[in-house]
Here is the input.
Amino acid sequence: MRFLPYWSVVWILRAFFLLGFSVRVEGSHNLRSEGSCILCSNHVSWLDPPLLAATSRRPVHFMAKRELFEVPVLGALLSRILAFPVDRGRGDRRAIKRALQVLGEGECVGMFPEGTRAREGVPRVFLRGAAYLAVRSGAPIIPIGISGSYGFRSRMTIRVGEPIIPSSLGRSGAELGRAVGDLTAEVFEEIEVLSSVQPRG
Here is the structure.
């Protein structure tokens, strides 16, 4: 797998999801074809990054927890789809620097603000990293809601919301903190709506 270029892996993933699942994408026009952006989605399964990579028309650099890169096959797959590791539970400056560099080059970063897969009955809590990157870089956040299950031939729905533009760039610690907090809350509410809408048809 290490010799396969990005788009070759993406086409393999598209075939996998086409054969194994029934995937519907709504709001794909909201996915920016150029310019920096941050894809933010709820987290249903470890297959979420490959799924979003397969449905995106442009390369996505995913920020993924470091432990996933230690899993055989999965670690190699993540590297092939441009993922880079982040240490959860602390401010990983190296991961933040990498993400800001990618955004500064006009590319797309993919993140799961929950930081881990959602568990039934456990309230969602969004981390502030995606909003921090958006406020620091000025890149819009594109909220995405994934609903359904990953059982064989089950129906998955991906709903892409309208881009959320950071209202202002924080100049001081207090301003930055308020901007990041407000944006995190806005993204959380939008993803809650997108991931809870009942599928049509």
Q: What stands out?
A: The chain has a mean pLDDT of 85. The chain has six helices and seven strands. The chain has one domain: 6-196.
